[in-house]
Design brief:
The chain is mainly alpha-helical. The chain has one domain. It is built from 19 helices and four strands. A two-stranded antiparallel ribbon has the order 1-4. Strands 2-3 form a two-stranded antiparallel ribbon. A hairpin with a 6-residue loop joins β2 and β3. It is globular and about 75 Å long.
């Protein structure tokens, strides 16, 4: 009998029910807190935990927590939907496909060079746009290209999956993981970007080397040297003037965004506005009429409805704990096992816990909403920075996405490539282990450099 893991929605609802019942059993308690006058951050005072009178939640409160969670996370939910809509418009212009097509034409005869180039492009999509399932329409074309060049199907899938995965893990401008986790942790949005770029380079370089070596060892030598078979190069899209305009608008938008974040304290509202303007502008210069821009915006936003709504439901998890005054009790008991251990061990523990949670909550934004309220407090009390806790979350959320059978887009990618999960896992497991070791080293480094701002 196979173990069937419920969907993230169902699992989160089960968690809400369990926590609701726990309010009748688990002692209520609270920490004293104080606000740092310099940063405005609300910190827990160590060793201040005390039990208080129980406040068990009713059935009505159990369901009330869900809409309240959505209301409390409304800014993040709207941000995700607006950003998804904007990316939907950009995708509809065909610019991404055209960029890939231009590279294919340019590197005929130098096919192996396409592996690092395409992986860099997909990694930037993961690091900046949080691209994961959005890349699914591109798999058939890249797999067909890879096999026509003499590479196997694993290489075709890996170019996109590991490319976007490496970028997603670092997420130096990823609004759906880094942005949300930092927002919940009360950190400046996209702060600590230099360290994340280092992480990006580490994971991307190891991935490129891994895929390149595999392709080099398993390619059909007779099909290389420019002899592309079973692939109609004339059907590959080319870069038009409209596509180039879309690229210019996108680059200008991100320069503006980075300047705004660095110098003008851009937050979720300003970042959402920038993405919205970028999407509409790309649609206009990309030759889409107003009706098409509108419809593609709706399609893009609807494709992220699952992730957007799960943020609100995940927020309900913390709402239930607040209703029953058991959040601080849970934090206190989570802290006990790591008391007396070095902060580096505490940070490692966070990474491991997030990796386990990601098996059950595959949405990065949903996982951030569910876990960061607890993790930020654990960070305060265990002597590591909240920025390090966010990094541990990113690694825990991102690494297992290249191997977890509960990750929807991962399973879909394997299905498109007609690759069995066991076959893929056997191949990618060494890289997964390498990522975990490198991630642990980077977390330890982040502790020693007091990775902040706080």
């Amino acid at each position: 009998m196979k173990l069937k893991i419920p969907s993230s929605y169902v699992l989160l609802f089960y968690i809400i029910i369990v926590l609701g019942l726990a309010t009748y059993i688990v002692p209520a308690g609270s920490f004293d807190r104080e606000i740092d006058t310099k940063t405005g951050i609300n910190y827990v005072i160590p060793n201040s935990y005390q039990e208080i009178e129980k406040t068990p939640v009713s059935v009505f409160q159990l369901f009330k927590a869900i809409p309240q969670g959505m209301m409390e996370a409304s800014d993040i939910i709207i941000f995700v939907l607006l950003t998804g809509g904007s990316f939907g418009i950009i995708q509809a212009t065909g610019t991404i496909n055209a960029i890939i097509g231009s590279l294919v034409r340019k590197y005929i005869g130098k096919e192996k060079m396409l592996i690092p180039i395409l992986m860099i492009i997909f990694s930037l999509a993961g690091a900046v746009f949080g691209t994961a399932e959005e890349a699914l329409p591109l798999y058939p074309m890249v797999i067909a290209l890879a096999t026509a060049l003499g590479f196997d199907r694993i290489t075709g899938v890996a170019i996109i999956l590991l490319g976007t995965g490496a970028g997603f893990v670092a997420g130096f401008l990823n609004p759906f993981t880094t942005g949300i986790a930092q927002s919940i942790s009360e950190l400046p949005i996209f702060s600590g970007i230099f360290m994340r770029i280092i992480c990006y380079l580490v994971f991307l370089s190891t991935s490129i080397i891994y895929v390149y070596r595999h392709a080099n060892n398993n390619c059909d030598k007779l099909q290389l040297n420019g002899n592309i078979k079973n692939f109609n190069i004339h059907k590959v899209p080319t870069l038009s003037s409209e596509h180039k305009k879309v690229m210019v608008v996108t680059i200008i938008s991100f320069i503006f965004l980075i300047i705004g974040i660095a110098n003008y304290e851009f937050y979720i509202l300003e970042i959402s506005t920038t993405f919205l303007i970028m999407g509409i502008a790309c649609g206009i210069v990309g030759g889409l009429n107003p009706g098409r821009i509108s419809s593609e915006f709706v399609k893009g936003a609807s494709s992220l409805t699952y992730g957007a709504l799960i943020i609100g439901i995940a927020k309900a998890v913390s709402v239930i704990m607040i209703y029953g005054n058991i959040m601080d009790t849970i934090i206190y008991n989570l802290l006990k096992p790591i008391e007396g251990f070095a902060p580096t061990i505490s940070a490692t523990g966070m990474f491991i816990v997030q990796s386990i949670i990601n098996i059950f909550i595959s949405s990065g934004s949903g996982q951030a909403a569910a876990t960061m309220p607890i993790m930020k407090t654990l960070a305060d009390m265990s002597g590591i920075t909240r920025q390090t806790a966010v990094l541990a979350f990113q690694f825990g959320d991102g690494f297992s996405n290249i191997i977890s059978p509960t990750s929807g887009y991962f399973v879909a990618a394997l299905a498109i490539g007609r690759i069995e999960w066991k076959e893929w896992t056997k191949w990618v497991l060494p890289l997964f282990i390498i990522w975990c070791i490198l991630g642990w080293i980077l977390i330890v480094i982040s502790y020693f450099i007091n990775y902040g701002p706080f």
